């Protein structure tokens, strides 16, 4: 688990830590139990069940990582938006509306 040092924590680092912690907790609670079931199925030579459990475990693991990635992307967007607002009157959404317009004008 990441260590939080109070002297360097801001709201974005705290949220990032929460995202990482949530992902790790979900993996431990939801994905890790599949290992025990898979080992039991292997001991019983139940290859169909092993394949099914591995598939379910992989799918669940990918969903958790996808959720984490989405949350991290949102957090990055919020950080950039905040930085842009501090530097001037424009925000991330304003800038993204005009992306590619320079290319259209050159054509």
Summarize the structure.
The protein is 80% helix and 0% strand.
Plain-language structure description:
The protein has 107 residues and is mostly helical. Helices cover 80% and strands 0% of the residues. The chain contains 4 helices and no strands. Helix 1 (11-43) packs antiparallel against helix 2. The chain is elongated, with a radius of gyration of 22 Å. The model has no long low-confidence stretch (mean pLDDT 84).
SSE arrangement:
Elements: H1 11-43, H2 47-87, H3 92-97, H4 101-106
Helix pairs in contact: 1-2
Q: What is the residue-averaged pLDDT?
A: 84
Number of strands: 0
Number of helix segments?
A: 4
> What structural class do you assign from the helix and strand content?
mainly alpha
Q: What is the gyration radius calculated from CA atoms?
A: 22 Å
Beta-strand fraction estimate? under 5%
The SSE string, one letter per element, is: HHHH
End-to-end CA span? 51 Å
- Report the oligomer: single chain
Poorly predicted regions: none
Estimate the helix proportion, in percent. over 70%
Shape: elongated
Largest sheet: none
């Amino acid at each position: 688990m990441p260590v939080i040092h109070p002297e360097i924590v801001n709201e974005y680092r705290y949220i990032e830590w929460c995202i990482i912690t949530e992902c790790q907790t979900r993996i431990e609670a939801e994905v890790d139990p599949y290992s025990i079931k898979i080992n039991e199925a292997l001991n019983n030579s139940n290859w169909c069940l092993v394949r099914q459990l591995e598939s379910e475990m992989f799918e669940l693991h990918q969903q958790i990582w996808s959720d984490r990635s989405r949350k991290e992307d949102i957090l990055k967007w919020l950080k950039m938006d905040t930085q842009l607002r501090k530097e001037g009157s424009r925000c991330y959404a304003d800038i993204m509306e005009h992306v590619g317009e320079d290319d259209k004008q050159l054509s």
